[in-house]
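Entry type: protein chain
Record version: 2
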Amino acid sequence: MTPQLFSVIFLVALIASTLLHVWLALRHLRHVAAHRTAVPAEFAERVDLAAHQKAADYTLAKTRLGLAELAVSTLLLLAFTFGGLLQGTADFCFNYIPEAGYLRGLALFAGVALSAFLIDLPFTLYRTFVLEARFGFNKMTWKLFLVDLIKQGLLSAVIGAPLLWAVLWLMDVMGSDWWFYVWLFWLGFNLLMLLLYPTLIAPLFNKFTPLDNLDLKARIDALLARCGFRASGLFVMDGSKRSAHGNAYFTGFGAAKRVVFFDTLLARLTPQEIEAVLAHELGHYTHRHIWQRIGLLAAFSLAFLWLLGSLIGQPWFYVGLGVSSPAAQGTAMALILFALVLPVFTFLLGPLMSHLSRKHEYQADDYAAQRTRATDLVTALVKLYRDNAATLTPDPLYSLFNDSHPPASLRIAHLLTH
């Protein structure tokens, strides 16, 4: 393949994926706005018009912000590739960073990550302190925001730098089959993070306290016993210090499994509804959805790393994406380029992943309906839709591509068949 041909293929894929995302977002905006004036009939007795319109306005605001982010991220990708920003960063590292180990490669990654962070920061600030605040969800203070940024930066350095160093080392010393060893290492790292995240990383950002409501704890313990689920504890997370949104989940595996409730969720739902929501989460565990997703992630990552192994020695791969200097065509550059352009070629995987996720949600709902009352899960979901300002009227095609959960109307109708 020639560099010119690959450049054309990349541009066509970028234009096609961008136009598809824009078209879907515009459909979503029109559909939500068109249904803003009336609550869907199946929710008329549970959601008032004011809450429905708030959800519509919140959805419209988020979608418009998403379009702005899409435009900027597309321009940034073009700047990194054809605009020469990545080549310039690589030249700077080659000229000013000493050739010690993989220091130049790490510096190149740091430069790209810093550029992306600075470009994304205004959107993060607007989303947190303007959009979320406008709709009454933001509880984040400026001090907490800065503390979070510092913690995230330190974690990236402490965990990310050694991880990246190990990947670059494996790419250099393992010969033509390096991609398989990197895959094994990456898979092991992800499993380790699943084990360590609940007890070592999550507590750096939130406070987790044992559930002290004895009646609720007894109800939940009885549900766990019926479901054959053993957890290391039931915890309440102080989610309210950052957001008014509510949620519940379980995390970890093996002896490190724990059930976590947002304090905002406990404040809104009745004990029966909390039990039904937890039963839904246990349905994911019982059906081994987490392991299925890990397996899918493993398969995709193996395929993508093999593909990178095939591209890493091809000059057209670099030159076709705006990297012309031979000094820049190393393992770090190959890894960065691949990570930058891969989403452009894989955007059609979105509906496949959404379909799988929706299937899992229906299975978890069925599990909950068999072990608690389906009506309790219905009322809990309606409260969560209302309190989180989730639209009840998404555009079906937009939802197919972007939503990991079924639309509210379909999900509630499915539950009411039990």
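Comment: The two ends are 56 Å apart (CA to CA).
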